[in-house]
Amino acid sequence: MIDKDIVFSIMQKSFEGLYASGIIDQIVDLTNETAIFGSGSKLDSMAFVSFITDVEDAISTIQKKEIFVVLSDIEDLYPDAPILTADMLAHYLILACK
Fold it and tell me: Which of 21, 75, 79, 86 is 20 to 30 A from 49, comparing alpha carbons?
């Protein structure tokens, strides 16, 4: 079963990989409030796509089934949220794995 600790570990490793490859220019220490998308995010559009793809692939491997992030589904969960935080993405991914 996938839980928040596992999802956060996957997201942190993705950030570290993006930094190591030079796609982002600073290390991100993931917290619940870390902006993944929107104002304050360290990810530009290309880095965001790479990040989401990394996370999808890692979770799909663990779950042994394809997991896809659908931004409109996240927006449905959080209709008034101005940004996508790490906590919100983790919650969505855990629900997607059920």
Answer: 79
